[in-house]
Amino acid sequence: MYKLIAFSGLVALTACSESMVRNSSFWREAGILHNDADFGNATMNNIQIQNGEKSYIVGLSQRFAREVTSMVNFEFNSAALDENARAILRRQADWIRQFPEVRFRVYGHTDKVGSNAYNKRLGMRRAQAVVGYLSTLGITRNRLEAVVSFGETQPLVVTEGRERRNRRTVTEVSGFIGRHPTVMDGKYAEIIYREYVQSATARTGLSGIQGADLATDQ
């Protein structure tokens, strides 16, 4: 009887010890416990925060949406750009040219009339039309992506019928150009400072060296 109790206690103690080892890194090398599904994501996030990449992209995305009309609309069953759409895209291009290191993505959308497969193709054609027009305004193709089409799945107005507001594209900041020299060297502060000087120069209404000197004094 005493042997059985002693054996049971030993089993319980062993199980407890194994549980401690399994659930704690105290007895094992540092970092042994991790989530395989997103291992490395925390490190990547920390690096992006420390070098300014992530916070700058988030801020730039918010600024783009605030300062420029990011959406253009289309006629029913059409990917043609009307004059109003082209005017909006010209303003987008003016804004985009300020940031040669930054990539942009164009999302295509449709209303719910028609099959999902057809609408997805139509949404992609609309995104490609926007990318094509922006490229004629001096924005290089390697900075523009038309790779995602939400088709009819993300309406602004929930309706089964025709709705112009749902027939749209949306242009968004998507990240940095990885091979750009400034980005490769991690010089995100230079990008921020250059944009700051340019914005100050624009406020003074001056240009050239005089404007730049005044901007840096502010």
UniProtKB/TrEMBL annotation:
This protein's UniProt keywords: Cell outer membrane, Membrane
Instruction: Output the superkingdom of the source species.
Output: Bacteria
Q: Keyword Protein biosynthesis: yes or no?
A: no
Which part of the chain is the OmpA-like domain?
Answer: 61-177
The terms describing its cellular component in GO are:
cell outer membrane
Query: Can you say where in the cell this protein is located?
Result: Cell outer membrane
CDD domains in the record, alphabetically?
OmpA_C-like
What's the protein called, per UniProt?
A: Outer membrane protein OmpA
